[in-house]
Amino acid sequence: MINYYDIIIVGAGPGGLFSALNLPKELNTLILEKNSSVGKKLLMSGSGRCNFTHSGNIDEFFLHYGDKNNFVKPSLLGFTNNDLIEYIKKHKIEIVIDKNGKVFPKSQKAKDILDCLIKDCYSNNVNIHLNEKVIEIKKVEDNFVVCSDKNTYKSKFIILATGGKSYPNSGSTGDGYSIAETFGHTIITPKPALTPIIVKDFKFSILSGVSLYNREVVLYKEGKKRKSIIGDIVFTHFGLSGPAILDLSRYIDENDIIKINLLNDNFDNVSKKYIDLISTKGGITLKTFFKGYNIPERLIDEILLLSDIQENVKISKVNKEIRNKIIRIFCEMEFEVERKGDFNIAMVTTGGVSTKEINLKTMESKIIPGFYFVGEVIDVDGDTGGYNLQFAFSSAYLAAKHIKINQIKN
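Below the sequence we write its predicted structure tokens.
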């Protein structure tokens, strides 16, 4: 027996749920979710605190999606961060904004966000089937035939909201990619993003937890400078993390070189300052000189130790060769990437369904009419700070809006 629905949504994450609750109530809508509960990955976001958007001006959002800034514009302008904040507030959920502009529920509980999505889905007469995995979707004349491991369905529209491959324990295992491929869509190779890096021969494990604020990080590939970013960095037991590293990770591969400017100044300026000080304060130590650049003392100690330089040596007693060597280390601290953190610890996926095959104004497939994509299944990944969840909500809203228009026309 084939069950008919107007719309079938595959995946009950934020994108799938938000699509469903924005569809016309009179339509027969079904969400198919392979997990035993909805929104498992949402509950993990922001370490369970749910950084669901950012407070910045919407025009600044476009700069936080790598080279996909033009693709995300229509969805983000169609449903902005302020729209999302207002939606959350209407459910009597208070919000807080941290010093970096990240927006959280005041309760610091992702469950509060999920509960309002679920409530609105049921208020909108949405059917949700749990523990039901989609095996295959086919287009037969004007309808889609959806085969799950339990039933067969027909529908006029499909919304694919299966997510990417990050946090596979939440059910994000890349199922949507194979479905998209059967309809002729190109899949950009999925890779971990917003993830720490493991450094080859890492010598700073003892500094795990030490942070640097607002430092420039430069990425080199095969000796050529490719990307740079300014942000916070955190030393870990195995390498580097923190917002700057996480945001840059979408571009990072094995054997790449990362250089960090610990001083936020260039070699020539630092050298001049050093030489000028010799005549007036030649008695200060190397350690004191570098502390003037607001660097954690433990990091200075470790760099000098690894460089076999006494921390209490006076700047006037350091010869030119050693002086240039140590300044170069502080201006361009170099790390070779062994690998990135895998999908088990990556917050999002870079790669997915090619944006070239999706109408950026509607989220509808350019190949198969009536087939829509929302959220992380698309080759769009944002920086840390709420940008990925905002795109999930915004793309979901855009898809639902276009289906509503299509339904009225027909």
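The longest helix spans residues 387-409.
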